Amino acid sequence: MNHSRFLSYVLRHRPEVIGLHLDPAGWADVGELRQALASHGRVLTRLDLEALVAASDKQRFQLEDGRIRAAQGHSIDVDLHLEPRVPPEILFHGTHPGALDLIAAGGLLPMGRRLVHLSADEQTARTVGARRGRPVVLRVLALAAHESGHPYYRAANGVWLTDRVPSRFLPALPS
User: Fold this and answer.
1) Domain range 3-70, CATH architecture
2) Domain 91-169 is of which CATH architecture?
3) What is the per-residue pLDDT across 88-132, written as a single tens digit (0 to 9) for each?
4) CB–CB of 88/132 below 8 Å?
5) Chain-centre distance of CA 76, in angstroms?
6) In CATH terms, are 3-70 and 91-169 the same topology?
7) In this structure, are residues 74 and 8 in contact, taking their beta carbons and an 8 Å threshold?
8) 147 burial class (0-12, 13-18, 19+ CB within 10 angstroms)?
9) Alpha helices in 56-109 (DSSP H)
10) Domain ranges of the chain
11) Tens of pLDDT along 33-42?
């Protein structure tokens, strides 16, 4: 597993695998992170870490004031302190054909994560969906869902997040 993927795994899901402590907002001290990584055979200089964060095509990480955290995608309990925002009328969700029956029955659910991830553009959603084979891109009536009481948030990396998307806000689910 490369450094970026491993860092995502640690900061989003399992900081304890390297003995790292995250604060309630998901932040870790960079020095503590580097020390914990090194004790598990993954040596990163400060410059290596800065380059890794800068090179992340999805801007997965936030690096501020000697601290680092994952921008979104957590399965562990963290509070990113995101303020509710009014989403655009349409957002997109990338998935795979095997998930469509479950989505049609219950809408989009966070599954193993804390929030559902949505993209502002169709191509990003297609890339996300392609991780598990042939991608399927769903259109989400995000503004209508928001207006019906579902809060939306925007992570630092531009990913839109919500608690769930009922199937009525997923027009023309592919069959």
Assistant:
1) Orthogonal Bundle (1.10)
2) Alpha-Beta Barrel (3.20)
3) 999 999 999 999 999 999 999 998 888 999 999 999 999 989 988
4) no
5) 12
6) no
7) no
8) exposed
9) 100-106
10) 3-70, 91-169
11) 999 999 999 9
